[in-house]
Specification:
Blueprint (H helix, E strand, L loop, with lengths): L1 H48 L4 E5 L5 E4 L3 H5 L3 H6 L3 H5 L2 H15 L7 E7 L5 E12 L5 E10 L1 H63 L4 H19 L1 H15 L3 H8 L5 H11 L4 H8 L3 H15 L7 H6 L2
């Protein structure tokens, strides 16, 4: 009987040994896989635990499934405190921003918004103001089952401060631009007043010159007694015209009030310019035409144009350089 069962027992032992060997091999591979999984889990845990941003996992019912330890760095509260008090997250948010954040999370969970981003303010455990930006992304398992939203909350307080500083600088710059524009407008207004007064002088001189010329012609046709009277009138007219030096000084005073330092800068750059040249420079700076210059200076238009040409040579200007533009830069 023993001899009958001995071969059968040996077969069974061999089969069991083979199964044990296979189980040992499977166990080895399972242990290897578990070690690999544990290594990967450790890596992911390290990444999650030491993430710079505050990471949140919110399920489809808007419950907090996971909160990263970095919540403590940003808010002063640990993950356990959020799980013990599910409403803590919203309690930190400024009341003015709370509804905005709630709507953002609701819309993200229900796929009403994809890649939602929202900025909001919080008060930390130590009552410090922090500006935050939260970005959301849908989470699925390997089978495609929707697990909720992963939200990353970033501290953007420094960025907001920098932008505020930039806006402050920009506002200051805009105020400076507006102030300069007002100054230019005032300058232009005063220049217009000066030009108007100069044109009035030119018109008056033109009329005076016309009267003097015609009186000189008429005088020769009159009786001697009348000639004497006309001569007296002409002498008075000539005396009045000689007083134009006073008008120039008066103009110069007002011109310097508007364009401070113009004549000193002009003299420094071109020391050989005469008083007559400086006067012409001021008139040209105001953009007076050749005809207007002729009327102011009591000369012909041809003489005024010759004066412009001579002045260009003294200033060393080329043919392509505009005389009026040149004086705007003095």
């Amino acid at each position: 009987m023993d001899s009958h069962f001995e071969p059968e027992a040996e077969e069974r032992i061999k089969a069991l040994e083979s199964q044990v060997s296979m189980l040992q091999e499977k166990n080895y591979f399972l242990e290897s896989e578990l070690k690999a999984i544990d290594v990967e889990r450790t890596k992911y845990q390290m990444i999650a635990d030491f993430a710079q941003d505050w990471e949140l996992w919110i399920d489809p019912k808007a419950n907090f499934v996971w909160v990263s330890p970095s919540s403590n760095d940003l808010t002063g509260y640990t993950p356990d405190e959020y799980f013990k008090n599910p409403g803590l997250f919203y309690e930190l948010i400024y009341k003015e921003d709370e509804q905005k954040v709630r709507h953002s999370i609701h819309d993200s969970i229900n796929f009403m918004q994809i890649g939602q981003s929202v900025e909001f303010r919080i008060l930390t455990k130590t009552k410090q103001l922090r500006w935050c930006e939260m970005n959301s992304k849908a989470v699925f398992d390997k089978r495609g089952l929707y697990l909720g939203q992963r939200c990353s909350v970033r501290d953007i307080t420094r960025l907001k401060s920098a932008l505020g500083h930039i806006r402050e600088i920009t506002d200051t710059h805009m105020l400076e631009i507006k102030a300069k524009q007002r100054y230019r407008d005032e300058m232009a207004g005063k220049d217009r007043e000066l030009v108007s007064s100069m044109i009035m002088i030119a018109q008056k001189n033109e009329i005076v010159s016309y009267v003097r010329k015609n009186l000189s012609v008429i005088r020769t046709t009159l009786p001697v007694p009348m000639q004497q009277k006309v001569t007296v009138m002409l002498e008075k007219i000539e005396a009045h015209q000689r007083l134009q030096l006073f008008n120039w000084e008066d103009f110069k005073y007002h011109f310097e009030k508007v364009h401070q330092g113009f004549f000193s800068r002009l003299k420094e750059r071109f020391p050989k310019l005469t008083i007559k040249d400086q006067r012409l420079c001021a008139y040209l700076h105001l953009g007076l035409s050749t005809k207007e210059l002729a009327g102011i200076l009591n000369i012909t238009a041809e003489s005024a144009e010759i004066g412009r040409i001579r002045l260009r040579k003294k200033l060393g200007l080329t043919r392509t350089q505009n005389l009026n533009t040149f004086f705007q830069e003095v």
